[in-house]
Amino acid sequence: MGATGASQAEAATETETQTETKTWAEGQATPPKRVLIAADKFKGSLTAVEVAERVTAGLRRGAPQGGEGLRIAALPVADGGDGTVDAAVAAGFERREARVTGPLGAPVTAAYALRGTTAVVEMAEASGLRHLPHGVFAPLTATTYGSGELLRAALDAGARTIVFGVGGSATTDGGAGMLSALGARFLREDGTPVGPGGGPLRDLATADLSGLDPRLADTETVLASDVDNPLTGPKGAAAVYGPQKGAGEDDVAALDAALAHYVRVLERAVGAPAAEYALAPGAGAAGGIGFGALVGLGAAFRPGIEVMLDVLGFPAALEGADLVITGEGSLDEQTLHGKAPAGVAAAARARGIEVVAVCGRLALAPVALGNAGIRRAYPLTDLEPDPARCIAEAGPLLERAAERLAADFLT
């Protein structure tokens, strides 16, 4: 993917002016001349592209002489969850759409990104919480069938390398729906297909993966996720993430038992590796679709931000940067475990490049920020403490935060 990523770095938007500024903070002789904005979305308020646009506007206003002499490049990033396709499109991939089955069975329009023979497929586009009516959940019956249809659309378009970003799912079916859409068969004792969702897997009697799309064998599939949970148990898909999808205590227990049974049936179909995959990092991602990808698609797990930085061309975009600005909606403990800002900061720090962050809210102490490679953070809540207003007015507030950042680091 290195060559593909490098070509995508050329899509980073960049503006230049002529006159150099004179001094900057901390007594250094000259301010940064090239700033790279590599931030994720502010979930619920701004896309990663919009974050980059607002930060750029704020930097221009806050830097001396309107930022003359300053080069600003923007490379929106994502960690495999919501917004992954948008980030790929911003980096130069082509947006494609397909009509697929949504998590409740109704058709939805889902997008994926394609460049050459490399596709970025985001399962949330087909099977995400975004497709549920407000306040409506279906923890036992929501299906990933549409995610399989979206993968098949990418194969039909010529993809032979697929980055499969998983996160933001409405489902806990272990990827059974996805595999069914790609040709697998999951049958009850009477030979009829099991119903959609994780709950009906309790009735699974036989599994047959021999009918899976043969193109998968010649396709490199990368499972990109920011979580490394196993499929079942106290740290598994149902226990940890089921409640976010409307699962009550009894539902969690039923889903966990159904998923464990699903693994046992798959062991009879494909052998001992099924049980090993169930314990592997990422198996529990997105309601267990990670397990389905590992056992059925031959996917290789990689931390989502790591693979996305590669695909988006981040290493090439870092060349010549003096300062990197990253961020996301909430900088908290989860940020430190595979989220986009932590990955960006680690990559920049390895090059000796200073990193600062913007965010909606900040829940990390300065020491934790520093250990993550982030020198300072600029939360919107410092400007507007009311969370509701902070979300509603995120754009203008982010520009003001970027002005403050410019005053501290670009003057």
TrEMBL record:
Keywords (A to Z) from UniProt: Kinase, Transferase
InterPro entries given in the database record: Glyc_kinase_flavodox-like_fold (IPR018193), Glycerate_kinase (IPR004381), Glycerate_kinase_RE-like (IPR018197), Glycerate_kinase_sf (IPR036129)
Coiled coil: none
Compositional bias (Low complexity): 1-26
One BP term from GO: organic acid phosphorylation
The keyword Transferase belongs to this UniProt entry's keyword annotation: yes
The keyword Transferase is annotated on this UniProt entry: yes
Region span, Disordered: 1-29
Pfam families (UniProt xref): Gly_kinase
GO molecular function: glycerate kinase activity
Family that this chain belongs to: Belongs to the glycerate kinase type-1 family.
NCBIfam families in UniProt: glycerate kinase (TIGR00045)
PANTHER family, sorted: GLYCERATE KINASE
Name the UniProt record assigns to this protein: Glycerate kinase
Species for this entry: Streptomyces antimycoticus
